[in-house]
Amino acid sequence: MAVITTADRAIQVYSLDQGPTEYKKIESLLKYQHRCVSIFTDKSKNPNGFAVGSIEGRVAIMYVDTTNPSVDNFTFKCHRSTPQPPTNTQDIFAVNDIAFHPVHGTLSTVGSDGRYSFWDKDDRTKLKTSDVINDQAITCCTFDSRGQLFAYASSYDWHKGHEGNVQTKKNAIYFRQCFEEMKPKQKK
Q: Which of 73, 81, 96, 120 is deepest in the core (most CB within 10 A)?
């Protein structure tokens, strides 16, 4: 499967089994520009859906073949600041990348706020959010094939234009053990 997002909120899904053929067109659940897309698999390791991240600090989880899309497909907010009194305004940051854990099926998001978050899409809960890393955006992330390591890069992502690029800030790549903290929480 391949998933392509377009400027008009359209999503095109392609089957790659016998050469690329368009399989389905879907309208995005997100209202603003898409920034990233990542495919997830079922328990048999067959692709069955995808996550799309946007500039509005929101992620959509969408299944390709579902009998009940209004129940199964959903969005959630992420990469936002805590509202501060008295105005209760909130800073909203772009979701720069999404990666799915190869063993647990949970996911990570990284954003322009300089944080990573771990999520359980099946339970629709947050597992963990980091502190700000390196005082810069986190631009991309991935897991190793065994799901032991989480790698992510911190650098300027140009969301503030060339004026926001501070030459003295250094780009960095980080690795952390993640297998246990990416496990879905046990249901009570």
A: 96
